[in-house]
Amino acid sequence: MERVVGGMGPLVLGGVGLLVMYYVMQKLRFKNRVQDSVVVITGASSGLGKECARVFHAAGARLILCGRNQTRLQELVQELGKTTNSKIKTYTPHTVTFDLSNTDTVAAAGEQILKCYGHVDVLINNAGISYRGNIMDTHVSVQRDVMETNYFGPVALTQAILPSMVQRHSGHIVAISSVQGRMAIPYRSAYAASKHATQAYFDCLRAEVERFGLQVTVISPGYIRTNLSLNAVTGDGSRYGVMDKTTAAGRDPVEVAYSVLRAVNQRQKEVLLAGPLPTVAVYLRTLWPALFFKLMASRARKEQRLKEE
Fold it and tell me: pTM above the 0.90 mark?
């Protein structure tokens, strides 16, 4: 009997060790890494950016909110100032106003951002614009304008902030892309192209800065219930002004904002936030491209018929 009990000792100790290890891993997994961290959010005055501001503020981040409209940014600062958290210290956000589509001014905005606290811990490239249109009816200037906002703007801001992160061997860069950065659908050419470019750039960046200890995350949501489609541009540059059914039925931006926070806390490299069909389509594009192309062509024909009716 003593031999049996004695033989069980190592097993018990081993089991306890595994439980302790599991507990430690869970604590690390859910560690609030953003508390007291300097977090920059672009496009913070509306939509997903605004919800990210609320979520990261509640988590104790020292926010720098960026956007084109200073009045709306100040209104958000006042709103956040009214929220309190007895368990977590919160900070009054800073604001930096600039137009991300004007890449000539982004470097100066980056300097202004760095002056707020002297460094940036997390940069969330969220600002963007959508597009609806037929390629044949879309002027190349519209394609260029969408690319300026969705691709060149975030790239310029990232490269303005990046040297300070490399110098400190610390920092996390987040790109809010789209499921359309992983697979393209008809009548979204300018938007899908900009998001494909975003995916490629930040994939390259992740590999290049890993040696400095920096983190890079690409988050690819499906439709989010925001005004993105209302504010989308069309082929002639005019405002689309329609709330698509798919957008209206999209994910709650609060839910997506918490997913962004979780991705930063867990240092996830890539997050796909899409329903079953878009997720299948992403993998179908890689594994069975011929079928994917047929499905997209069928979708294009269907959408064209609906427009003509």
Answer: no
